[in-house]
Amino acid sequence: MISIADLLATGSGTLVGFILGLIGGGGSILAVPLLVYVVGVASPHVAIGTSAVAVAVSAAANLAGHARAGNVKWPCALVFAAAGVLGAAVGSHIGKAIDGQKLLLLFGVLMIVIAGVMLLRKHGAGNPSVRLTAASAAQLLPRLLGYGAGVGALSGFFGIGGGFLVVPGLLASTRMPLLSAVGSSLVAVTAFGVTTAASYALSGLIDWRLVVFFIGGGILGGLFGARLAGHLATKKALLGQVFAGVVAVVGLYVVVRGVGALMA
Hints:
The chain is an all-alpha fold. The protein has one domain (4-263). The longest helix is centred in the C-terminal third of the chain and has 28 residues, at 236-263. The termini are far apart. It has helices spanning 4-23, 31-39, 44-68, 74-97, 100-120, 137-158, 163-174, 178-202, 208-231, 236-263.
């Protein structure tokens, strides 16, 4: 029998997938609040573990398209992801040890920060010829390893894909063009999601039934979002700003609920 929670998980997944398809990222940051406050997952840790699986699947699906289009700078992406996997393993281990309500409160703060980054972020053209080679390794490798480990730790700690953290990390460490950073980021987001999901799965902190319904909704929402994106291609910047506002509002809500729960 399909329960109300299953239907709510499908609807939540549809919303996340729709946002991902429409503006190309960011929707996954809403997965944990939706699972906790809409679907009704009692444990923030289970919500984080469950969302990590959905994030990994979504990122892998999007990566295939970017790889076919030649938007992935594989050497840079793989080094960044490898460093990030170690960070994500450590971050997820620490996250599981923290009280669920405190973790949710910190998650709300992160949402507000990410919304601010989304609103203020500006990008130059970048350097399309940047490559990780023997000649450039001395300059690029330390930056890729440092940013990768830091972003991976945050991703694992909060159970998010971290695309809005990975893209700025790749831009800062390599100065590659934005489109290349977006495509390359999906290698890391997929790896981080798998690492975090594996860590939470080993601790029994994933609701696999909800994963199926959430991902199913995400696939459906992604199809609609991608179709609408074609009609609103010239308004993507505005859509991104509106979505940033939504993330900020939800973040504030999570913070208020988190503070209330800790004071109760």
